Amino acid sequence: MQVYLDNAATTKMSKTAINAMLPYMDRIYGNPSSLHSAGQKANEALVNARERVAKLLGCEAREITFTSGGSEADNQAILSAARLGEQKGKKHIISTAFEHHAVLHTLDKLKKDGFEITLLDVHENGLVIPEQMADAIRDDTCLVTIMYANNEIGTVQPIKEIGAVCKEKGVLFHTDAVQAAGHLHIDVKEQNIDMLSLSAHKFHGPKGIGALYARKGIRLTNLIEGGAQERGKRAGTENIPAIMGMTAAFEEACAKIDENTAKLTVLRDKLITGLSEIPHSVLNGDEKKRLPGNVNFCFEGIEGESLLLLLDDKGVYASSGSACTSGSLDPSHVLLAIGRVHDIAHGSLRLTLSDENTEEEIDYTIKAVKEVVEYLRSISPIWRDLVSGKKEFVIK
Ligand SMILES: *Cc1c(COP(=O)(O)O)cnc(C)c1O
Questions:
Q1: Cβ–ligand 1 contact at 246 (below 6 Å)
Q2: Which of 229, 220, 218, 199 is nearest to 71 (CA)?
Q3: Most buried by CB count within 10 Å: which residue of 61, 235, 279, 353?
Q4: Who's near 113: CB < 8 A, 6+ residues apart?
């Protein structure tokens, strides 16, 4: 059996998305900036896609900029807010320690430019407390950037409340909604969001395409100079096939949010219940305020990489955390941010579901993880020390 449980890393493209792209690869291949009819046909598609994406977010078409994905949208949102803040002498930004690296590394860059960054505590449950965020806002705060849903532990922040505080205090609010878009209902106006990033390949669309919503009046800074595409804010010939694929995938995903949430929550909770039976294991992130398809555990006395390789042998495709940090030996910054110690953070397993997963696959996965954990512990000297009482268990 092959079970793909790494949907937070990327998803399979839907048939709808693929079919929406095909005409723009052979028949309607003009450059939307060309004045002839072939170009204008492509431009009509672009205009149409922008309106449809805007409608799904509850904003206006001109508030949408197409980007190469979530990372670019995060970079552009944060750098734009920073430039606007700098012009008014405001060089303080609030975020959290468990953001995606597209956010954290952009903030690191700003720190070198003299910005001060406050990283809020996300506590053991992986949630920001809006009152603590409000207290952290200063006269020189120019931006609050907090992710909608965490890509490793799936916790979903009180976005509307955070946005309301920012609105009241006159501070820009950006949210990296890459894990939320197409999975949770979003309405940028109702939720007081000034800027939002999304990426198509996390909701069954193509890779290399995303969007940045920026409320009108917020002047974006260009990351790429060149032609006047995207209202002069993002140069380069628009990737029309990908934009059409993203738009179709986003519509399909949004239409299925309630149905998928109901289905995935059942599978997720079954997986959580099954894996909780493993002794000395702990679920990472709040049990309820998490994405319907996210499961993340730490197992004591286990090395995450070995766990993944042995699960791969059994056909279960999982992750130890973010795809971006795999390959490095550092434990997940997300797990450290929720207070897991190094040794425990190393023994993590992330399983992220899609609506294609079945109950049979979940049963198979529970059995596979139990077997692999048991085997790895049986050959681990650390586990021997724990069992003999030489070392003390961290996870009771
Ligand atoms: C995947 C992801 C990104 C990066 O998106 P890309 O389109 O791959 O650049 C950013 N933030 C979060 C939370 C993600 O999960």
A1: no
A2: 199
A3: 353
A4: 82
Q: Which two tokens stand for residue 111?
A: 């720190």
| DSSP string for residues in 331-379 | PPHHHHHTT--HHHHTTEEEEE--TT--HHHHHHHHHHHHHHHHHHHHT
Q: How confident is the model at residue 131 (pLDDT cuts 50, 70, 90)?
A: very high
Number of the ligand 1 atom closest to the C-alpha atom of 177 = 13
Residue 325: pLDDT band (50, 70, 90) is: very low
CA 241–ligand 1 middle distance (angstroms): 20
Q: Which single residue is written with the structure tokens 């009509």?
A: 44
Which of 369, 264, 267 lies closest to 318 in space, CA to CA? Answer: 369
Residue 154 CB–ligand 1 contact under 6 Å: no
Contact 201, 10 (CB under 8 A): yes
Give the E-state strand segments of the chain in sequence order. 3-4, 64-67, 92-96, 116-120, 141-145, 172-176, 195-199, 210-214, 281-283, 294-299, 316-317, 348-352
Minimal CA–CA distance to 196: which of 69, 74, 71, 50? 74
CA distance 207 to 272: 30
307, 374 contact by CB (below 8 A): no
Q: Is the CB of 176 under 6 A from ligand 1?
A: yes
Give the C-alpha separation, 333 to 345, whole Å: 9
Dump pLDDT digits (tens) for 275-318. 999 999 999 999 999 999 999 999 999 999 999 999 999 999 99
Q: Which of 101, 199, 294 to mutate to test the pocket of ligand 1 (most atoms within 8 A of CB)?
A: 199
Q: Residue 324 catalytic?
A: yes
Ligand 1 atom nearest 73 alpha carbon: 9
Contact 49, 243 (CB under 8 A): yes
Amino acid making up residue 262: A
Q: Is the pLDDT of residue 244 over 80?
A: yes
Whole-number Å distance, alpha carbon 151 to ligand 1 midpoint, is 8
- 195-199 vs 172-176, strand pairing mode: parallel
3-state class (DSSP) for residue 166: helix
CA distance 154 to 284: 9
Residue 9 Cα, ligand 1 centroid: separation in angstroms?
8
Cα(18) to ligand 1 centroid in Å equals: 21
